[in-house]
Design brief:
three-stranded mixed beta sheet, 28% helix, alpha/beta, 23% strand, 7 helices, Alpha/beta knot
Length: 225
């Protein structure tokens, strides 16, 4: 699977892509991640990617031209069927990202992610270039780089081999593709605070009774996505 990320700050991804399971997955050729500098598709000596908004307003708006050329070139180079790839634009107005969407993405062959900056992105990118607009929450960020990392990691972990097990074996993902997040505990069984309080692990988790443990997890868990 390929992830193509378009950004004006490619260096933000350097350490992230080299570490942990993402780094190992890349080394083992389980996934391919390419970071593209949007300025490579500008056509002026200043490598301009933004301009003032029509009608006035605060901040600058990212231009449609460089993004259009970048996406077109990336698609041409990858040569993947339209049904097997998506172009994603991150924006606070987008559809809320969830586990179901991550599962859908894991069945693609290529995801092109456009990381906005400044005040926003020319609306023609959403209307004519992106297949969908995504938001990771009801808050503003300085750019789309963190959302891109979130989509990359949440999708990559569903690719067989990335976390050491097939995605269909993850019992925390239900048939409706929602993610069940239940409380987790590890040693010690009893943790003593400085004021002598004792924080205990629920007895059911120590029982060795798998059906009771599964029932407890379902009762305590919450569906996400």
């Amino acid at each position: 699977m390929k992830f193509n990320i378009i950004t004006i700050f490619p260096e933000l991804f350097d350490s992230y892509l080299k570490t942990s399971l993402i780094g190992k997955a890349r080394e083992n050729n389980l996934l391919e991640v390419k970071i593209h500098n949007l300025r490579d598709w500008t056509n002026d000596k200043h490598n301009t990617v933004d301009d003032k908004p029509f009608g006035g307003g605060l901040g600058m708006v990212m231009k449609v031209g460089p993004i259009y050329r970048a996406v077109k070139d990336i698609k041409k180079k990858n040569n993947i069927d339209k049904e097997k790839q998506k172009v994603v634009l991150f924006t606070p107005r987008g559809k809320k990202y969830n586990q179901k969407k991550a599962t859908e993405f894991s069945n693609l062959e290529n995801i092109i992610m456009i990381c906005g900056r400044y005040e926003g992105v020319d609306q023609r990118v959403a209307e004519h270039i992106a297949d969908l607009e995504l938001s990771i929450g009801n808050y503003d960020l300085m750019g789309g780089e963190l959302p891109a990392m979130i989509v990359l990691e949440s999708t990559a972990r569903l690719i067989p081999g990335v976390i050491g097990k097939d995605k269909i074996l993850d019992k925390r993902v239900t048939e409706d593709k929602k993610f069940i997040e239940y409380p987790q505990y590890t040693r010690p069984k009893t943790f003593k605070t400085k004021d002598e309080k004792k924080w205990e692990v629920p007895e059911v988790l120590l029982s060795g009774h798998h059906k009771k443990i599964e029932k407890w997890r379902k009762e305590k868990g919450e569906k996400i996505g």
